[in-house]
Every structure is written in C-alpha cells, then in structure tokens.
Amino acid sequence: MGGESGGERGTTERVLTLLGLLQQRQTWTGPELADRLGVTPRTVRRDVERLRALGYPVHAVQGVGGGYRLGRGQELPPLLLDDQEAIATAVSLLAGADGAVTGAGEAALRALTKLDQVLPARLRHEVRALSGSVESFGGGRTPVDPGVLMTLARACRDEVEAGFGYASKGDVRQRRVEPYRLVASDRRWYLLAYDLDRDDWRTFRVDRMTDVSARTWRFRPRAAPDAATYVQEGVASRVYAHQARFLVRAPADTVRAQIPASAAVVRGRGDGLCEVLSGAASLDAMLLHVLLLGHEFEVLDPPELGRRCHVLAQRLLAAGATPRP
C-alpha cells in the first residue's frame, strides 16, 4: 500500500476520488477503498467524515458484505462529474430548457449557469457556448451532429464568421454568414445568421449543413430580430409559396395545443381570440388545416383566400345537396 497524500490539495483530491468510487458501486469495504486510494483504513474513515460534513450521506453497513454506501440525503450536495458527464449534463439541461416540461426551462438555465461556474476552464467554454447561443420554441427534435452544434455555438459566442455547404433544392452551395443564434424547434435545429452574400438575415437548417467551420474573422453584431420568433415565423410561413393570417375564435393556448409550433405562429388577441399565421403549398391546404381545428374563424390575409372560401363553400353545399341515385 502506498503512502498517504500530503497537504490540503492532496486531501481534497483524495476525498473527491473517494466520492467518485462511492458513486460507482453500491457498497465498498474499508480495505477496498484504502487499497484504491493508497491510504490506511483510518484515513478512509476520516475522509468519509469529511464527505458527511459536506452533506453526503455515507452510511457504514455492518455485518457480512458490509462497508460504506452512499445513501440518499435530505439536501442536494455537490456532484462529481468527469469531462464527458459534464458535457452530457449540459446537453441534457439544454433539452430541459426548451420548455418541453412546464416550469423546467428557467430551472434548467439556472442549473447551466451553476455548472458553468464550477467547471474547469477547458470545459467552461464548451458549456457557455451551448447555454449562451441556444434558444427554442418547441420540444423534441431530429438529432444532428453535436460537433456541428458546438462549432456553431462557439461561433455565435465568439462573434466570428462561419462557413458551410448548404443543401437546398438539390444543390449544395457554400454560404458565408455571421451566426447569431441556434434555435431549436419541435422538429429540427436552425441557425439564425446574417448571410453576407445575400446581405440579409436567413434561417438555415443545421441538418442540411456540411463542412461547417468557424473562421477567424470577427464581426460587430448587427441589430437582430428576436431569434426564436423570426425562425418560427420562417418555418411556419415564409418558406411556403402561400402565407395566410386567420382570426380564430378560441384562446391562443387552446389553438397552440392543436398546432405544432413549426406549423403556425399563434398570437393572442384577447377576449378569447387569437391570430394564426401559417403557410402552405396551396391555399386549399391552409383552409383545410384551420377548418379542422373546429373553431369559428375569419380570413385576414390574403384577399384571394377569402374568395376561395366562397368557391369551396359552394362546392361543399352542392355536394351535400346532390340526391343519392
């Protein structure tokens, strides 16, 4: 058995190692822990007391098969995480921060902040890149390469240009952008960025990107639209050939529960009303979707959609009045 570690730093490292061992297995004997730590059983007992003083409920189990066991406490003590576990925890907290669980978003962001404060420098930047550059407006989504997300998140944080190949309508073209925010919808990850070649804000699907890289050229941030709102409106309407606005006679929360966030933007109008902004490949498809919500509604825009309502209404009336052979 090796000699005991000396000094405050050696004691702290040894106690943390002891905590890690207790988290790995249900029960350890004193001699097993002493052998792993390279100390005497007496030092193990002292280190166990140090853990108890920090709030960890370490129980001494008597009899055959006894030893030390980490129990459940009434208070939440600090956790010991390795590098991979810390990054995985940050990613999981981001998933909780997207609002999929009521009330979890703010708590998850607070936890991310605390995690960022105690992480070593080599990991702190990674977590800060994630927590500071991600917004959302929905729940679970299609997975993408986490390395790509990390590269884009760092570019957002560091305010440096990013480049990537982007697949659209069968072609892959190189894009050069000033990345602003990553946004998670209920289906996919998106990047809101200023397209330097098109001189305008654009939304990019992360799953369509290839050869993503962050460059060394820094940029001065521009006045930007609200990231989550801009991306949601783009996903729900701007990408389609036709856009429409409806006034629906139902509360906004009721309609939001009926329509995925990626399919329409729902804004409350008060007095049990809401406005629905949506898009589709055809006017008829939009009318059908709103009709099937089961609420009374009015067409606000475009005017031709209102005229289309009359055409379809006459067709439906005629179909209902046709006598059976």
Please tell me the overall pLDDT. Answer: 80
Write down the Rg: 28 Å
Count of DSSP helices? 11
**Strand segment tally:** 12
Helix content: 40-55%
The geometry reads as elongated
Q: What sequence of helices (H) and strands (E) makes up the elements?
A: HHHEEHHHEHEEEEEHEHEEHEH
The low-confidence runs, each spanning 5 or more residues with pLDDT under 50, are 1-6, 97-105
Number of domains: 3
Strand content: 25-35%
The end-to-end span amounts to 98 Å
Helix/strand-derived category reads alpha+beta
Major sheet: size, sense and barrel closure?
Answer: 6 strands, mixed
GO molecular function: DNA binding; DNA-binding transcription factor activity
Keywords: DNA-binding, Transcription, Transcription regulation
InterPro entries: CBASS_pafABC_assoc_protein (IPR051534), DeoR_HTH (IPR001034), HTH_11 (IPR013196), PafC-like (IPR028349), Tscrpt_reg_HTH_DeoR_CS (IPR018356), WH-like_DNA-bd_sf (IPR036388), WH_DNA-bd_sf (IPR036390), WYL_dom (IPR026881)
Pfam family, one: WYL
Short description:
With 325 residues, this protein is an alpha+beta fold. It has helices at residues 7-24, 30-37, 41-53, 83-96, 104-118, 121-132, 146-158, 227-238, 252-256, 283-291, 303-321, and strands spanning 58-61, 67-70, 134-136, 160-168, 171-184, 189-195, 200-205, 209-218, 242-248, 264-270, 273-280, 297-301.
